[in-house]
Amino acid sequence: MQDVYRGIWVISYRELLRFSRQRSRVLGSFGMPLLLLVVFGAGFNRTIGNLTPGVDFLQFVYPGIITMTVLMSSLFAGLSIVWDREFGFLREVLVAPLSRSGVILGKAVGGGGVALAQGIVLLLLAPVVGIALGPMVILQVIPLLVLVSLTLSGLGILVATMMRSQQGFQVVMQLMIFPLMFLSGIFFPVNNVPAWLQIVSKVNPLTYGVDAIRQVMLGASAAASPLVDGAPLGVTVFGHTMSVLEDAVVLGVLAVALMTAAVWSFNRQE
User: Fold this and answer.
1) Which of 1, 42, 68, 187 is the most buried (most CB within 10 A)?
2) Per-residue confidence (pLDDT) for residue 50, from 0 to 100
3) How does DSSP assign 131-188, residue by residue?
4) pTM of the model
């Protein structure tokens, strides 16, 4: 067990150190979320107007933009495994007195830490776009960002354990990012789409992260507020509107399952 903790500490510290030293990566990681915020948020806010009483499109989309930032950083946590494998560093790590499980968990914690830091920055920038967030709201959102980042880091690392080249990994990630992003309710309520698209959206793990963070930022009553067609704004499963706690439980179960699968796949192939 001590080897596991040591592996988590060493590998996660390395990942955070690498990120902090790459200024272009630090600045570039905010580029797409901020661009989408301007295009979809400010651009469509006046056109679409309020989705429910007191909730305009910009307020609706901002929690999703924060979650999307975490999505992109977390999924690419697996890229370092592919990079280390290609350049031989992974072999050196595996002969060190570190648990293999600790190596994988350290990658997830490091990638999750990077994603969490980026999410917190966007939370602090909320007043710039006219969204007021109190300190208690921010403190409630942070644990949810941790759950989302660990869940998606587990998914990214699971994919990375089966890849042998950075190019292949990046192609697979691009194929995954857009469905995860656009079918998670970031830009539209998942209850206001055709039935088959609702089913796909509710299989998407990111949907529950977006819904939980949106409920905290907008208030639980907003999730139960009806849209134009009478469907609630929040995510419903079998006719039940999910609460923040229920969303968090789903994310927690998925995080454990994906992390376990990533550890098993890594141990099996390395």
Assistant:
1) 68
2) 62
3) ----HHHHHHHHHHHHHHHHHHHHHHHHHHTT---HHHHHHHHHHHHHHHHHTTTSSS
4) 0.84
pLDDT at 56: 72
Task: Tell me the C-alpha to C-alpha distance, in Å, between residue 118 and each of 25, 123, 221.
Answer: 11, 9, 28
Q: Which two tokens stand for residue 160?
A: 């990375």
Residue 239 is encoded by which pair of tokens? Answer: 């006719």
Cα separation of 224 and 246, whole Å? 15
Consecutive 10-residue averages of pLDDT for the chain (270 residues): 72 76 65 68 61 70 85 80 75 70 82 83 78 84 90 88 82 85 83 81 89 83 55 73 89 92 80
**Contact (Cβ atoms closer than 8 angstroms) between residue 111 and residue 74:** yes
- pLDDT given for residue 256 in this prediction: 92
Q: What is the DSSP letter of 193?
A: S
Question: End-to-end alpha-carbon separation of the chain, Å?
Answer: 20
> Which two three-digit tokens encode residue 84?
């280390």
Residue 128 to residue 33: CA distance in whole angstroms: 15
